User: What shape does this take?
Amino acid sequence: MVKDRPAPSAVRAARPGSGSRARDRAARTAVVLLGLALAGCGVGNDQSTLDPAATPARRISDLWWLMFIGGTVIFAVVVMLMLAAIVRGRGRPEDAPNRSPAGNRLVVLGGAVVPAIVLVALFALAVRTMPSTAASRAKDARLTVQVVGRQWFWEVRYPGLRITTANEIHIPVGQAVAVQVSTTDVLHSFWVPELNRKIDTIPGQRNAITLKAERAGVFAGQCAEFCGLQHAHMQFLVIAEEPAVFAQWVAAQQRPAPAPASAAAARGQAVFDTTTCAACHTIAGTPASGDLGPDLTHVTSRRMLAAGAIMNTPVDLGAWVRDPQHIKPGVKMPPTELSPNQLRDLLTYLGTLR
Ligand code: CUA
Assistant: This one.
């Protein structure tokens, strides 16, 4: 005897419904978002406006706390009034046209007078905070750094010191450093939350901001203006060091790349110079003088690669050279076809660029 097969609609009903699948998806999304919130968004350090290490950032943080506390108080008052209204009930509809004079006063006070006072006060406080974040006069800064926002990395030049690097800005602690920002392509925004406000890079214009770190440390920076597919992978580090340490860094960066000291490194340099690498990157002291990508003269001294997309380890660098599009889709660097031996030699050579 053949049993009746259940109707297709019954089968569908027996499966987990689309409602529960949507709930699953929502739960998974919530877990992912929570993870991202807890893990931070990149390989850099924290980027917290609330952990200031410079006067402008502290003023901004003070303003933020004031707004946060004020907003919390106002929110609490509104919630209390709402609860009071709920507890007292809606009243009879025929009473509505004859609200009490006290009720009318409350509406005018809460709906017009208080918001006007709060908004004017906030405006005044914001205007008072702004000058502290402005660039100081150029003559007050002993060190100037030029930062060029490019899709998607930061070119960093020290015009007085003949240094070019990328995505890593070293500054001496306690000294005002004039940072001039510009762009060769689209709008970006240079932002080191623990040191100062954002400053946009605008085509055809040079903007300025001052960084003056009160303590040594590594401060994470981030492009804060949407600039295309890899906007999120446009991070950088500001490394504030004691003046003596900074001077050592300057001396090391001013040196051209050392000549390869081993046969493997020499073969690696040949690979660099004869494949596409040299067309886009500069290594000072060698024939490689491209300027489409970051200067690699001292690439191994940097902490991160690809503007913070990966850490600077030989394994990550190897993966990057082979297939950058996999790590940073849309990046201008093409994949490099190399044999395993060529790649090993190339990594050996790049490892000598300290
Ligand atoms: Cu550059 Cu966003």
Remarks:
- The longest strand covers residues 143-150.
- Residues 263-350 form a domain with the Immunoglobulin-like fold (CATH 2.60.40.420).
- Residues 149, 152, 188, 223, 225-227, 231, 234 surround dinuclear copper ion (CB under 6 Å).
